[in-house]
Amino acid sequence: MDKQDILKLLENYQPIFSEEKKFQKEIIDFIEQNDDFALRSNLTGQLTGSAWVVNSERTKVLLIHHKKLNRWLQIGGHIETDDQTIEQTILREVTEESGLKNLKLLSSSIYDLDVHTIPQKKEVAEHLHFDIRLVVEADENDTLLAQNEEVLDVKWYFVSEMENPSETDILIDASMKRMINKMKNI
Fold first, then answer.
1. 34, exposed or middle or buried, with CB in 10 Å at 0-12, 13-18, 19+?
2. Cα separation of 61 and 27, whole Å?
3. Taking residues 125-149, what's their average pLDDT?
4. pLDDT per residue over 90-119, tens digit each?
5. Rounded mean pLDDT, 38-66
6. CA 58/CA 186 separation, integer angstroms
7. For 63-98, how does the pLDDT look when each residue is reduced to its tens digit (9 = 90+)?
8. Which residues of 64-95 are buried (b: 16+ CB within 10 A; e: fewer)?
9. Which residues make beta-bridge pairs with 116?
């Protein structure tokens, strides 16, 4: 993955929320200071890619139940050596974690940024994920298959449910709230 392409993508992004401005600076600094920004061997953290997967009507979002974190989250993960772009990473992750193949990247522009801590798990120390998120459209009627060892389940949620956390079984944290709030702009 080309470092300059990622930096250009990040520098062109105009964050709406103040925490994203902070994340943007942190991610740019991390990439500028680390040539191994995408490698799991970087013990500080890794650049990752996530998808905010929406249906064509923009009324639902596809989430996975992440096994290690035991939480419902947007689909995403690590950059692999074959991935040439962050878009390839994100589309590959959606297919790997949901089974969906008919995907439409709505924009190559960043939808959201986040920096979050991944807790220590066995031999892997606590580290950061510097996450770039893009919007992907999928057909909610396609068959979903949780086909990854990291995924317990995959499910479509109504955005209206997510706007009222008492109506759903998922934890709506600040990161998820930001992405829900941006839905009207997709």
1. middle
2. 25
3. 92
4. 999 999 999 999 999 999 999 999 999 988
5. 95
6. 8
7. 999 888 888 999 999 999 999 999 999 999 999 999
8. bbbeeeeebbbbbbebeeebebbbbbbbbbbb
9. 129
Tell me, letter by letter, the H, E, C secondary structure of the chain.
Answer: CCHHHHHHHHHHCCCCCHHHHHHHHHHHHHHHHCCCCCCCCCCCEEEEEEEEEECCCCCEEEEEEECCCCEEECEEEECCCCCCCHHHHHHHHHHHHHCCCCEEECCCCCCEEEEEEECCECCECCEEEEEEEEEEEECCCCCCCCCCCCEEEEEEEEHHHHHCHHHCCCCCCHHHHHHHHHHHHC
Beta bridge partners of 114: 131
Structure tokens given for 138: 């999928």
**Quick one: average pLDDT of 27-45?**
95
Mean pLDDT computed over every residue of the chain: 93
> What integer pLDDT is reported at residue 15 of this predicted model?
96
Give the C-alpha separation, 136 to 103, whole Å: 7
